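Q: I have 400 residues here and want to know how they pack in 3D. Can you give me a structure?
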Amino acid sequence: MRRLAPALLLFALSVSAQTWTQLPDFPGNARDDAATFTIGNRIYVGTGMDVGFQLTNDWWCFDTQTELWSPIAAMPTTSRQYGTAFTIADTGYVFGGVDVSGALDQLWAYYPEQDAWEQKASIPAEARYACVAVTGFYTNAIVATGMLASGSPTNEAWKYQAVTDTWEAIAPVPGSARHRAACFLDGGGMRILGGADADNEPLSDSWSYPIWFETGLWYAATDLPAPRYGADGSGDYAMVLTAGASSASAFHDETWVLNGSVWSPVEAFPGGPRRGGVGAAGIGGSPWFMRFYYGTGSDPGLRYKDWWKLEFPVGMAEEWNGDTPLCYPNPADASLSVAIGDRSRDADIVISDMCGRPLLNKHLSAGAGTVDVSSLASGSYVISVQGASFRWSDRLMVRH
């Protein structure tokens, strides 16, 4: 199991240093209730209801390295809002939503190398929208909650397997049936937060489902500081949540960070109160707490197209001086950084498969360094760090 303490300790030190920066606007029409997924260092945003109260099917890509937007192929289907997006491997998916005819049961896949969309298997259940989703163990994703075509919210949860293009029902989410909830990747699991119930009353409860070590059960997690629906956020280990509504007329701009089991307020979203925006974090191999992106959405009178970045600029290797080695990012893509705190100590790093067979090794001569993991296939490994007077090991995930 991943060890959270070192990263959480650092985040407590850096949380007061966060800053919001306005970036180039989303180039499509202002809109709310769009969908978003990430692949590598790119964030994809599309669909939603625009400023003219028209549903949309256009899609745009934001490159977090150049901080520029570019168009991609529009979805070759009806315009829609309240779709739910997720990523499996290097493919983006958009599920459900609502078009002019009502709720949808469709699933569409986007392949960035071909700039092309393909329709996949529809969910074998009632059509729905305003669900939440998170990627599972590299080949699957879980889609949960939402508003059914019949007009009632649901607490159903479904697992989609990309390899077989099939769906299977899993245990429903406890508590009230809900829609317009928020969702995060929660250290290897799915965390659902808040949403609105059948009476459109905001909820504050939170539930976690362990995807990597699946038990088939949902577990109660830390409640939101206040009831919210239509909020959005992202992250892994530490999670950022911003904006949202508590009624049809009460919109908010608060931004919170969940650090372990404690919500901490950070600088409010400078774009103003809104709901129905989209957020993304952990982009391009950057540590999860370094950058969070958020924009679009609406308040009671306007729809927006602004785009912002929230940064926590303290570096891990420079500031952390704990005794337990710190390895980031985890999951890793091309390279893995390792810091053992005391720069005067040498150490050896060994990465093994789950059967204990060594695959990579590297010597650290100054307490910190990087390991090239690009040759490893996506999957689970064990990383061991050994010095003259200590030995430490933990689970490492590689995701290309």
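Q: Anything worth noting?
A: The two ends are 21 Å apart (CA to CA). The mean pLDDT is 85.
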